[in-house]
Amino acid sequence: MIDYHEILNTIQEEMSYRDVKGKVASYIPELARVDPKKFGMHLYRNENEFYGFGDHEEKFSIQSISKVFTLSLAIKNLGTKVWERVHVEPSGNPFNSLMQLEQDRGIPRNPFINSGALVISDILVDVLDNPKKELLEFVRKITGEEDIDYDESVAQSELSSGYRNIALVNYMKALGNIKCDVEEIIDFYFYSCSIAMSCKSLAKAFMLYANKGEILHSGEQILNPSTVKRLNALMQTCGFYDESGEFSFEVGLPGKSGVGGGIAAIHPQQYSVAVWSPVLNKKGNSELGMKALERLTTLTGLSVF
C-alpha cells in the first residue's frame, strides 16, 4: 500500500525554491506581485484521505487551469458541437500565438491555448444566461466550497493589459469563428482566469476528472464518462502548452497548468493533485511544480503509462 503522507513529506523536504531559475509572470501586473517563495501541494483521494503541505490552503489565481472548467461547461451545454469550432491537436507553439491561428484560418488548434479558450468563452457567453455566475456555480458545486470567487484585482489587471488576447478574438471574429460581442467575451475570459483557489480546492475539483465525471463528495454524475475520457486526453496532450510532451515524459499524468504557478493533475480512479509555485520556466509552467509532480509519480511508481 502506498504511503502518500510519507511521499509528500519526502517531496517537501527535497523541493526548494532556491533550485529554480525562472521568474513569476510579469506580463499581468497583479501576478508580478506574488511572493516567488510560495509553495504548496495537496493530494486528494477521498473525503477521508487527503494530504497537503506548505501553502496548500492559500488561494491564488488559477489562470489557465480554469480552461478545463469552461470546456467542461461548454460540452455539458453544447455537446460534441464544440468540436466544430476548435480542434484537439497539440499546438507546439506558445499559448498566445497569432501566427498559428493565422495558419489554421481562425480555428484554434485546441481548447487549452488562449485562442481555443476564447472560442469556448464565446460559446458560453452565447448559450448561458449569466456565464460568470454559472461558471462560479459549477466550480463551487464540484468542490463543495461556496466561498470560491473571482479575484477582482487580477481580472482588472488582465483587462488593462490583455491586448494580445483582444487581438486573437478580433482576428477570429474577422474569420467568422466568433459570434458574440468581443468585449463581453474578453470580460468573461479574463474573469474565468482570475478565479482564486487553493491547491486543496483544486485537488477536490479535479477529482471530478479522476472519478469519471462523478462528484465524489455528493455522488452526483455531472459529466458522462466518455466526456471525461476526452477531457483527460486533452489534458495529457495539450495541458501544458508547447511543453505538454515534456510533462507526459517526466510526469505521466493528465493535467493543466496556469501562469499563476498552479498545476492540477489526476491519476484516474486513484487521486487528484494540485501544486502551486509561482516561479515559471520559459514555457510558462511552474518550474518547481513540475519537479514535485515528477517526484510524485517516481516515488509512487505509478503513472497512466
UniProtKB/TrEMBL annotation:
GO molecular function: glutaminase activity
Transmembrane segments: none
Signal peptide stretch: none
Chemical reaction(s) catalysed: L-glutamine + H2O = L-glutamate + NH4(+)
UniProt cross-references to Pfam families, sorted A to Z: Glutaminase
GO biological process, one term: glutamate biosynthetic process
Entry keyword Acetylation: yes
Protein's UniProt keywords contain Signal: no
Entry-linked InterPro entries: Beta-lactam/transpept-like, Glutaminase
The enzyme's E.C. designation: 3.5.1.2
Chain sites annotated for binding substrate: 64, 114, 158, 165, 189, 241, 259
Keywords: Acetylation, Hydrolase
Assembly and binders: Homotetramer.
Stated family: Belongs to the glutaminase family.
Protein name per the record: Glutaminase
Species in which this protein is naturally found: Zunongwangia profunda (strain DSM 18752 / CCTCC AB 206139 / SM-A87)
